[in-house]
Structure to design on (492 residues):
């Protein structure tokens, strides 16, 4: 019987004495052995700096980080990052743009390799950028750490790969994330800007990196500026049972150190500021509403009570498969459309939704219920529930013949987005811009986040082609349907 030994498919650094790194510069990197990454106590650091002639820690030996031609210390807030990585296996970092996570991570990994033998003959995987050019950029940044203080050091490298001491570092572009599966083990996997991965790639990523935790006790680090709501980072953030250590670093952590205060004040005028600097998902990505318009509507009223003397409408965007099921209830009170109810339901049963809508009708007593006309079976089920003629096509035909709006002859009203979608999107934009719309950011988060990211197409319809993790704007569409009952013209 022949013994078949499984061969490791990734290369291990050649430790032969003929290696350029080990022969010509045998002791170049020995200076890093047992050195701390940084000495966080400033007084002690000053003492050690003088005592060792500047060879007190990794970052003084390698040279401190430089940004915009200015040299920076390792800042106190970065100890939060350091401690999180040192003490946890899974780390989630939501961060402000330009706060220095990429620079920090490159330095941290280099220090981890050089200060001990812990990563000898081990591997580190980095996932960054959609194309190999960007993946190679990360590898180059790691190499460039040594140019200033170690100009004659030659590191073995090739495109997107680098050997540092005895550790192999491989950078994968996001489009090749499935290739991560092809290796036996890794000690670290760092995913840079993980919230910007396409939804399908995010799912592939989780499947690809998960086994490494068990196979090699691998540390998983996800870091990103926030992008769309309901993406990878927000899903982990909202998961109370998540195994990730969570660290949210908005601009205030770097204010007066990595960020100039005056520059931040100027940045606050940008529509993306809340997303890129305050770690809030979705801000500045849409063009249907201006950010301040949404904020005005969110702060207009507290959550309203049902007022049976007011006009109330319900909008329903049915979804039972790939999309969610959206329901919105609006009340016109004090000349403002107030959101009483706005929720999405993921993969509900048909019977569950029929029952829920019956309960909501009893609770809110809407004058009309508007349903996406693309779901005739569901419309007929509702009409049976509310004892209405299920042959609504003939009711519409007769009303058109008599030149009467068919809405007057129905309680459950089918609405075609092909016919009315553009008009209802324009109406939604209009009432929000005039502050005639009130929504609770706390109670109706799904609707508010979809409002922040909603985009017009060139033809004036809602653009769902790049909705990503927002799915199909289901509660947004149910709100558009609920608006059908209200004609909001100019008022004094």
């Amino acid at each position: 019987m022949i013994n078949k030994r499984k061969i490791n498919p990734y290369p291990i650094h050649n430790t032969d004495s003929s290696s350029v790194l080990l022969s010509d510069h045998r002791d170049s990197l020995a200076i890093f052995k047992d050195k701390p990454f940084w000495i966080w106590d400033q007084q002690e650091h000053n003492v050690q700096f003088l005592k060792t002639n500047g060879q007190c820690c990794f970052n003084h030996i390698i040279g401190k980080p430089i940004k915009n031609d200015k040299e920076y210390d390792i800042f106190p807030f970065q100890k939060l990052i350091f401690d999180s990585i040192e003490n946890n296996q899974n780390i989630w970092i939501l961060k402000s743009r330009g706060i220095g996570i990429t620079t920090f991570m490159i330095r941290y990994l280099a220090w981890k390799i050089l200060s001990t033998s812990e990563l000898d003959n081990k591997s580190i995987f980095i996932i960054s950028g959609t194309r190999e050019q960007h993946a190679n950029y990360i590898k180059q940044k790691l190499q460039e750490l040594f140019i200033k203080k170690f100009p004659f050091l030659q590191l073995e490298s090739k495109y997107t790969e680098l050997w540092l001491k005895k550790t192999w570092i491989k950078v994968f572009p996001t489009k090749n994330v499935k290739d991560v599966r092809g290796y036996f083990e890794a000690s670290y996997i760092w995913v840079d800007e993980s919230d910007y991965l396409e939804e399908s790639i995010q799912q592939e990523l989780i499947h690809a990196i998960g086994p490494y935790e068990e196979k090699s006790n691998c540390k998983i680090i996800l870091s990103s500026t926030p992008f769309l709501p309901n993406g990878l980072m927000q899903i982990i953030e909202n998961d109370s049972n998540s195994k990730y250590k969570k660290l949210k670093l908005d601009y205030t952590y770097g204010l007066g150190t990595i960020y100039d205060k005056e520059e931040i004040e100027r940045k606050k005028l940008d529509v993306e500021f809340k997303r890129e600097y305050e770690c809030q998902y979705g801000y500045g990505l849409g063009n249907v509403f201006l950010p301040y318009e949404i904020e005005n509507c969110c702060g207009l009223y507290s959550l309203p009570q049902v007022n049976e003397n007011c006009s109330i409408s319900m909008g329903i965007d049915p979804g039972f498969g790939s999309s969610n099921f959206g329901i919105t209830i609006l009340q016109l009170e004090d000349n403002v459309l107030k959101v009483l109810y706005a929720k999405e339901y993921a993969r509900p049963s048909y019977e569950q939704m029929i029952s829920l809508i019956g309960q909501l009708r009893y609770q809110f007593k809407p004058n009309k219920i508007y349903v996406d006309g693309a779901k005739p079976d569901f419309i007929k089920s509702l009409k049976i529930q509310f004892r209405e003629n299920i042959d609504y096509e003939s009711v519409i035909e007769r009303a058109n013949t008599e030149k009467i709006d068919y809405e007057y002859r129905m309680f459950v009203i089918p609405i075609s987005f092909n016919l009315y979608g553009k008009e209802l999107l324009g109406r939604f934009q209009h009432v929000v811009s005039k502050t005639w719309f009130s929504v609770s950011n706390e109670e109706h988060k799904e609707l508010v986040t979809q409002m922040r990211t909603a985009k017009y197409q060139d033809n004036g319809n809602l653009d769902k082609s790049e909705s990503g993790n927002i799915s199909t704007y289901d509660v947004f569409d149910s709100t558009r349907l609920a608006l059908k009952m209200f004609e909001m013209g100019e008022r004094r």
Summary: The first strand starts at residue 66 and ends at 67. Residues 20-276 form a domain with the Rossmann fold fold (CATH 3.40.50.300). The two ends are 92 Å apart (CA to CA).
